[in-house]
Amino acid sequence: MKTSAAILATTAFAITALAIVEAGRLHPQAVADTASTGLGGFSVITSSVGQGPDESPYETVYVLDSRGEMLLVYGIDNVADRRLILRAGASLPALFRAARGG
């Protein structure tokens, strides 16, 4: 039951982050930049991936779950389709172990 609740909460934060990103695109002079927010053990970070048109570059949403120690990465493959796709997910302790060479 805890796993499904964590997945639901993570997805809700990712959708919220996507809504924030899309709302920023309503202004023609808006510039994609890194933005972050956090609540209840989750942090959501958006960042440009360096692709797409200059006036509306593609972005990725990173979700950090500090309770479950997970990193989830979401993106949009086809802007016209407007579907949020889970690109990757990983355990933070495993990522840090790998970064340390262990």
List keywords for this structure.
alpha+beta; 5-stranded antiparallel beta sheet; 2 helices
Written description of the protein model:
The protein is of the alpha+beta class and 102 residues long. The protein has one domain (2-99). Helices cover 30% and strands 31% of the residues. The protein is built from 2 helices and 5 strands; from the N terminus they run H-E-E-E-E-E-H. It has a 5-stranded antiparallel β-sheet with strand order 1-2-3-4-5. The model is unreliable at 27-32 (pLDDT under 50).
Question: Could you give the topology of this structure?
Answer:
Layout: H1 2-24, E1 35-39, E2 42-48, E3 59-65, E4 70-75, E5 85-91, H2 92-99
Antiparallel strand pairs: 1-2, 2-3, 3-4, 4-5
Whole-number mean pLDDT: 76
What proportion strand?
25-35%
Can you tell me the residue ranges where pLDDT is under 50 for at least 5 consecutive residues? 27-32
Instruction: Give me the Rg, rounded.
Output: 15 Å
Distance between the termini: 32 Å
Nutshell version of this structure?
It contains two helices and five strands. The chain is of the alpha+beta class and 102 residues long. The chain has one domain.
